[in-house]
Write a structure and sequence with these properties.
globular; mainly alpha; Hypothetical protein af1432; 201 residues
Length: 201
């Protein structure tokens, strides 16, 4: 799937991108932050990147590698998957001429880290990653995560209210904002119905 997305948007797969894909497939399993999430973020990032005039190659590399260290964080082996994913990107792309742009985008994609995205590509990756936490997919991912971590429905509602519903106001690009607003409404409507059903009796 990663290969298909790359060919569709970039026409061919360069060796650097092939290596990044291999690492992503090797390190990422499935789950709320697994390979399917990376595929969706890649697709979103490239769609937004086309409209915003970004460097699609830099964007593709950053999107493919942005979460590769996430499984290590889930196991408690590291504290910051964004920082570690950036290190992995630097190691495997050490001869790539735009390595700094790729590394920065990965480091800045996690808004809770407080690293402000400075480039268009970093802003787009940040938007794409947050957009995948909204809409119907975002709802599914919240409950996948809750299942993975033993969280209740009430805990999930708090997560929606404390984090997910704030995401649309954290977008950087015009295209990202438009998509986020549409998906935000889906989450709002779902939560309204969920709360009604929980408090029915």
């Amino acid at each position: 799937m990663l290969e298909e997305i790359i060919v569709k948007h970039l026409g061919s797969i360069k060796p650097e991108i092939q290596r990044a894909i291999e690492v992503a497939k090797e390190m990422l399993g499935e789950g709320s932050h697994g390979l399917s999430h990376t595929e969706r973020v890649l697709k979103l990032a490239l769609e937004i990147g086309k409209k915003e005039g970004a460097d699609l190659e830099v964007l593709a590399l950053a999107a493919i590698l942005h979460d590769v260290a996430r499984p290590l964080e889930e196991k408690g082996l590291i504290k910051d998957h964004a920082k570690e994913s950036a290190k992995i990107a630097r190691d495997i792309l050490n001869n790539y001429p735009k390595i700094e742009e790729v590394v920065h985008a990965i480091e800045a994609h996690r808004f809770s880290r407080g690293v402000e995205p400075r480039t268009l590509e970093a802003k787009i990756l940040s938007d794409a990653d947050k957009i995948d936490a909204l809409g119907a997919v975002g709802i599914a991912r919240v409950f996948m995560y809750s299942g993975e971590h033993g969280r209740s429905i009430e805990d999930s509602i708090r997560h929606f209210e404390e984090k997910i519903l704030k995401l649309k106001d954290l977008m950087y690009t015009k295209t990202g904002k438009k998509i986020a607003e549409e998906r935000h409404k889906i989450v709002e409507d779902f939560l309204e119905e969920l709360k009604k059903e929980i408090t029915l009796f």
